[in-house]
User: Which sequence fits this backbone?
């Protein structure tokens, strides 16, 4: 069925909608910031998982893309992306063989390292091939997930890499994901500054030992405009900033009118004027209410134009909203819901219905949907 030219309100539900004007505005904002700072932009595609959107980001000035998993990198490579950072630790032989496949396809590949044994295993594997693998050292800047500690641990791992036979040290990077747990804009600013300093100081410590660090890269949508202004940083890697979502609004990073991704939902039940049920449950809206210990939103999505509704609970196929006061909604009415977390919601759908001013202009695949290996 050809949906182009139709009003979004004539579509079946639930449907994943993407506002093309807001998307391009967000992409251009990231690119403009990087250009203004004289640094590179390498956006993370785990948010959108779309070849079409990645192409828009490259056209706007991105030097390449970041992925979380090899599967995402394989999809992006098949879509023409040639400069890819896999920002995830890789050490199994099964996955190393897949890295070879990407390099055979001409991808300028970089991967994350944060452990001496990982470096040893990568070196031993790639020494048996004709390839030299570029690795970037992941620094723990406070998230306490992956990454070596800044300073001496970075230098020790850098020495291990430069003394290896088949690895090349390309950069140092971090992800300040703990910014999602911040309680204020001021705390986000502090995290962003700390994130950048840990990368820059680690790079400087390496260079004092004669180990050059060409790339000093930071990420995180809440912090990239803060960390990206610190002298010595050469690259930013925001992901969610392409779409934004209710969590970013809750953190004070953006506003609802900049959120490009919405779900079109139908009212499937109105009960005693106190409860409205939508056809978007946990299989479409997901269960995020914040991240890293911070519930920065109220409910499970923001219902556009209906402040009287709070989506209080989700089952698999039902979004149950309580009504504070009165609502004009009735059975079969359609509403737009801004998801709490755009990244997880996009991964639930096979396609984006792209619209401009509420009229469908295209349909794009969520190409890397489900690519978690």
Assistant:
């Amino acid at each position: 069925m050809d949906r182009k030219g139709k009003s979004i309100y004539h579509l079946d539900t639930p449907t994943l909608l993407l506002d093309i004007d807001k998307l391009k505005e967000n992409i251009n904002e990231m690119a403009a910031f990087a250009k203004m700072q004289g640094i590179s932009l390498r956006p993370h595609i785990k948010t959108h998982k779309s070849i079409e959107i990645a192409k828009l980001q490259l056209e706007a000035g991105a030097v390449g893309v970041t992925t979380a998993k090899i599967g995402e990198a394989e999809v992006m490579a098949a879509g023409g992306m040639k400069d890819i950072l896999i920002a995830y630790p890789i050490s199994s032989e099964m996955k190393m063989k897949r890295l070879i496949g990407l390099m055979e396809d001409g991808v300028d590949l970089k991967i994350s390292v944060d452990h001496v044994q990982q470096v040893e295993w990568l070196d031993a594997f790639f020494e048996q091939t004709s390839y030299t693998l570029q690795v970037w050292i992941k620094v723990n800047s406070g998230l306490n997930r992956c990454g070596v500690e800044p300073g001496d641990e970075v230098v020790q791992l850098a020495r291990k890499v430069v003394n290896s036979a088949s690895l090349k040290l390309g950069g140092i990077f971090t992800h300040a994901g703990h910014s999602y747990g911040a309680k204020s804009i001021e705390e986000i600013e502090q995290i962003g500054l700390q994130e950048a300093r840990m990368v820059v100081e680690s790079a400087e410590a390496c260079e004092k030992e004669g180990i050059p660090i060409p790339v000093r890269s930071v990420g995180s949508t809440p912090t990239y405009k803060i960390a990206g202004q610190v002298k010595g940083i050469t690259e930013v890697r925001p992901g969610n900033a392409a779409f934004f979502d209710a969590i970013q609004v809750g953190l004070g990073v953006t506003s609802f009118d900049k959120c490009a991704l919405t779900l079109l939902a139908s009212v499937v039940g109105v009960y005693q004027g106190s409860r409205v049920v939508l056809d978007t449950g946990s299989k479409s809206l997901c269960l995020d209410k914040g991240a890293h210990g911070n519930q920065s939103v109220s409910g499970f999505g923001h219902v556009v134009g209906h402040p009287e509704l709070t989506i209080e609970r989700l089952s698999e196929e039902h979004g149950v909203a309580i009504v504070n006061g009165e609502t004009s909604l009735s059975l079969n009415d359609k509403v737009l819901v801004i998801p709490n977390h755009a990244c997880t919601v996009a991964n639930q759908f096979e396609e984006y219905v792209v619209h401009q001013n509420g009229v469908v202009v295209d349909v794009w695949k969520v190409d890397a949907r489900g690519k978690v290996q």
In short: The chain is about 30% helix and 25% strand. Residues 16 and 131 are 41 Å apart (CA to CA). The radius of gyration is 22 Å. The first strand starts at residue 15 and ends at 19.
